Amino acid sequence: MLIVTTDTISGKELEALGLVKGSTIQTVNAIRDIGAGLKTLIGGELKKYNDMMDNARKIATDRMQEEAARLGADAIVGVRYATSGIMQSAAEVMAYGTAVKFR
């Protein structure tokens, strides 16, 4: 399935099927969180958090794509991601867009 951030796909006429979305809430384990807290004292990249967010985006995208497939979509246009903190060390990632069928 084609997934794009644009509202159109060059050379394709699109029929909108509706909004599709996928989300997940992810966290890192407590020991890694303590390590990240210490890292804030000296600075630097929080690799475990990067890994967590990469994984969360993949899960959210997969869930969005599954919802679009259930609608019979050929593609998803206008894809966006949103994140929000749920609690300390936990974040929700949502992927959303418009499922479309090629005419």
The low-pLDDT segments are none
Overall mean confidence score, pLDDT: 88
SSE series: EEHHEE
Placed side by side, the strands forming the largest sheet appear as 1-3-4-2
Q: Count of DSSP E strands?
A: 4
Structural class, by secondary structure, is alpha+beta
Tell me briefly what this model is:
Helix content is 36%, strand content 41%.
Structure description:
- It contains two helices and four strands; from the N terminus they run ββααββ.
- The protein has a four-stranded mixed sheet with strand order 1-3-4-2.
- It has helices spanning 30-42, 47-70, and strands at residues 2-3, 14-27, 75-87, 90-102.
- The model has no long low-confidence stretch (mean pLDDT 88).
- With 103 residues, the chain is α+β, with helices and mostly antiparallel strands.
- A hairpin with a 2-residue loop joins strand 3 (75-87) and strand 4 (90-102).
